[in-house]
Design goal:
This protein is of the alpha+beta class. It has 4 helices and 3 strands, in the order ββααβαα. Strand 1 and strand 2 form a beta hairpin.
C-alpha cells in the first residue's frame, strides 16, 4: 500500500486560512487544535478543515502547499468552493 499525502486548508477562529501538508489530515488537525501544530495555528486557533487534496507523493503535496500559500484570499475561497 502506498502512503498518501495531503495538502489541506484550515479555517481559523479569526476567519483566516492556514495551509499545510501531512500524511494524516485528522491527526494533524488535532495537533493544530491542541496547540502542537504550526506557530500560526497556536495564535490563530483552527475551527475546521475546509479543503483537502490527495497526492501520491510528498513532493507533489509540498508543491501544492507552496502554490496555495501564494494565492490571494479570494483565490483560496474560490479553490475551497470548487
Amino acid at each position: 500500500m502506498c502512503k498518501k499525502y495531503y495538502t489541506y486548508i484550515l479555517l481559523t477562529k479569526n476567519n483566516t486560512y492556514y495551509c499545510g501538508y501531512t500524511d494524516d489530515v485528522e491527526k494533524r488537525f488535532k495537533q493544530h487544535c491542541e496547540g502542537k501544530g504550526a506557530k500560526y495555528t497556536r495564535a490563530n486557533k483552527p475551527v475546521k478543515i475546509v479543503y483537502t487534496k490527495e497526492f501520491e507523493n510528498k513532493s507533489d503535496a509540498l508543491k501544492e502547499e507552496f502554490r496555495i500559500k501564494h494565492l490571494t484570499r479570494e483565490e483560496k475561497i474560490k479553490l475551497i468552493n470548487t
